[in-house]
Write a structure and sequence with these properties.
By secondary structure, the protein is α/β, with parallel strands linked by helices. It is built from 21 helices and 31 strands. β14 and β15 (273-278) form a beta hairpin. 53% of the residues are buried. The structure holds 5'-O-[(S)-butoxy(hydroxy)phosphoryl]adenosine (WT7).
């Protein structure tokens, strides 16, 4: 049956209850909901004691005396790296594999908890030798190799906040993040493997660090063996530094509220926001959600989260959640179609993956490639599937369950954000009868609602804005160095509540359906990119006078970036203009922000006050009937743009 036919058969009310067998053995019990509802703070206190080792017991569970600046597990002291590594070795699980790493060219490494402990200690000692102490920031710009996890944990061990920058970001994006956080050390590699080729990383670091006043050392992992430029005194090989370092390291417990990391994400204005996460609350929520949402049994599960460590999903479900829970997991360096389109399924078969966590954009890509690519492999070990990053359309949900999950696995659609630190809204496997396309209900301990423009909760059957109505342990504490922007972005729209920036609907049963961003943030393949960021990149090109960017719906990537640009008077529109501008955006931000389509136009639709009406451009980009044009200064502008679009003068991606 076609995806469309299937989708027509589906009704929102269709439910997938857990099998009796799954429910009987499930980790989560429905009493969790009641426990949390009757005493939310006490509930989190119990999770904190149950899931995390504290060197010093915390006193108050939550200090909310100065909202929205929260303090969780007040006075408690812990070490995040100890919790993720050493305590499992002490508990006798040293021989358990922590990471089954699979390189794209086919090389692999299995790292046990005992080995991870030695590596993290060596790395912590090496960073100390390079002058890193508690509170210093360390930038990490690495491919998907175990050293990324080791470097993050080494930072955590020292109480030195890390700032991981996705390896696909440009040197300019890296530079601005190093600058904002004033990083002292950058950990990088010569390069990594992607799409069958070795790509370079070190040149981008050299460029970014060249003008930096804060960076003292660059620690370089040798992954591909390619030649690199070397700055004596500044650059240090990872292997040399770790080789000299001891495998033992005595950790210092950190305050529960000590910053664990900064992770930059796109907002509605040009410069990315440094989301700041703490040690105690964040770790508790990562461990809690990883255990219950994924029904984890660490002694027998093989968990695979396909996200890159450069995104929050990689932080919470490739590093802190699974390792805090002592899980065995898979980490894969490359792309799903290298060297063939069954690579992921081959990996699932090879390691006996039991829990898979990925994004709708990947699922839709696999749907396009066809089920035969999946059917060639034995996926019978899979028992739970997760989705994250964007709304999952019901056809993709059902396909995922049927083709990948053999029609037996529960599927959990998990809603959260970089800011929330960990999963917030999701079914609980074994308990919830899930509806395909719905993230269902807030997890026990989490309070969310959907409100209208004036902040009133909407009744069932209506839509509005998603808000979080109570503080939660993994919440961001502020934006790095910018409390004002923190207050303004999240807490001013609906006072007393956290504004997530997402539209949502409550269905007749009160279950939640996420509908995508309501601000100028696009979601391309589950990656957050702001329209303003891409516009700034475009207007920084000498040929561009003005630019407007919209996210147009895309069958595979969720949204695709469509740019409308006005060239400067002197600039000629050549055949290569679009390619030139696209390359320019790649240079400024990274390939993920490259517009799918660039339209050269004579004018942009503006209101009388000069505001660009993106809504109308989006109508054009999505080939829809135009909305209300009466507020435009000149309504013929839209006719011209539309003609240009259909006339094919648009510079489409070749
Ligand atoms: C935005 C956050 C959280 C990990 C990856 C993205 C969208 C995320 C879902 C979901 C509908 C979702 C939202 C959110 N989003 N998960 N299950 N259903 N939308 O993190 O880059 O901080 O992006 O991703 O729009 O606000 P992020």
């Amino acid at each position: 049956m076609s995806a469309e036919g299937l989708s027509n058969l589906l009704h929102e009310e269709r439910r997938f209850p857990p099998s009796e067998e799954f429910a009987a053995g499930a980790v989560a019990q429905s009493t969790l909901y009641d426990d949390a509802a009757s005493d939310r703070r006490g509930f989190w206190g119990r999770q904190a004691r149950d899931l995390v080792h504290w060197d010093t017991e915390f006193g108050e569970i939550l200090d909310w005396s100065d909202p929205p600046f929260a303090k969780w597990f007040v006075g408690g002291r812990l070490n995040v790296a100890y919790n993720c590594v050493d305590r499992h070795v002490e508990a006798g699980h040293g021989e358990r594999v922590a990471i089954h790493w699979e390189g794209e060219p086919g090389d692999s490494r299995a790292i046990t908890y005992a080995e991870l402990q030695r590596l993290v200690c060596r790395a912590a000692n090496a960073l100390t030798d390079l002058g890193v102490t508690t509170g210093d920031r360390v930038a990490i710009y690495l491919p998907m190799i175990p050293e990324a996890v080791i470097a993050m944990l080494a930072c955590a061990r020292l109480g030195a906040p890390h700032s991981v920058v996705f390896g696909g970001f440009s040197s300019e994006a890296l530079r601005s993040r190093i600058e904002d956080a004033q990083a002292k050390v950058v950990v990088t590699a010569d390069g990594g493997y992607r799409r069958g080729k070795a790509s370079a990383l070190k040149p981008a670091v050299d460029e970014a660090v060249g003008r930096s006043t804060s960076v003292e050392h660059v620690l370089v992992v040798r992954r591909t063996g390619q030649d690199v430029e070397w700055t004596n005194g500044r650059d240090v090989w990872w292997d040399d530094a770790l080789g000299k370092a001891s495998t033992e390291h005595a950790y210092e417990p950190q305050d529960a509220e000590a910053t664990l990391y900064i992770l930059y994400t796109s907002g509605t204005t040009g410069n990315p926001k440094g989301i700041q996460h703490t040690s105690g609350g964040y770790l508790v929520q990562c461990a809690y959600t990883h255990k219950y949402v994924f029904d984890l049994r660490p002694e027998r599960d093989v968990f695979w989260c396909t996200a890159d460590v450069g995104w929050v999903t990689g932080h919470s479900y490739l590093v802190y959640g699974p390792l805090a829970n002592g899980a065995t997991q898979v980490m894969y360096e490359g792309t799903p179609d290298t060297p063939h389109r069954g690579r992921w399924w081959e990996i699932c078969q090879k390691y006996g993956v039991t829990i898979l966590y990925t994004a709708p954009t990947a699922i839709r890509t696999f749907m396009k490639w066809g089920e035969d690519e999946v059917a060639r492999f034995d996926l019978s070990t899979l028992r739970l599937l997760g989705s994250v990053g964007e709304p999952i359309n019901p056809e993709a949900w059902v396909w995922y369950r049927r083709v990948v999950g053999g029609d037996r696995t529960p599927v959990v659609d998990t809603w959260w954000q970089t800011e929330t630190g960990a999963i917030m809204i999701s079914p609980l496997p074994g308990i919830t009868a899930a509806k395909p396309g719905s993230a269902m209900t807030p997890l026990p301990g989490i309070c969310a609602d959907v409100v209208d423009d004036s902040g009133e909760p909407v009744p069932n059957g209506s839509g509005g804005f998603l808000v979080l109505t109570q503080p939660w342990p993994g919440m961001l504490r502020t934006l790095w160095g910018d409390d004002e922007r923190f207050l303004d972005t999240y807490w001013s729209r609906f006072p007393g509540r956290y504004f997530a920036g997402d539209g949502a609907k409550k269905d007749d049963d009160g279950d939640l359906w996420l509908l995508g961003r309501v601000d100028d943030v696009m979601n391309v393949s589950g990656h957050r990119i702001s329209t303003t960021e891409v516009e700034s990149a475009l207007v920084s090109h000498p040929k561009v006078a003005e630019a407007a960017v919209v996210g147009a719906s895309d069958p595979t990537t969720g949204q695709g970036i469509v740019a409308f640009v006005i060239l400067r008077g002197s600039a000629e529109e050549g055949e290569d203009t679009a390619r030139e501008l696209r390359d320019h955006v790649t240079q400024a931000i990274g390939a993920i922000a490259k517009p799918r389509q660039i339209m050269v136009v004579a004018e942009l639709p503006k209101t009388r006050s000069g505001k660009i009406m993106r809504r109308l451009l989006q109508d054009v980009a999505e080939n829809r009937e135009l909305g209300d044009v009466t507020t435009l200064t000149d309504s013929t502008v839209m006719d011209l743009i539309r003609e240009g679009m259909s006339g094919g003068s648009a510079a489409d991606e070749a």
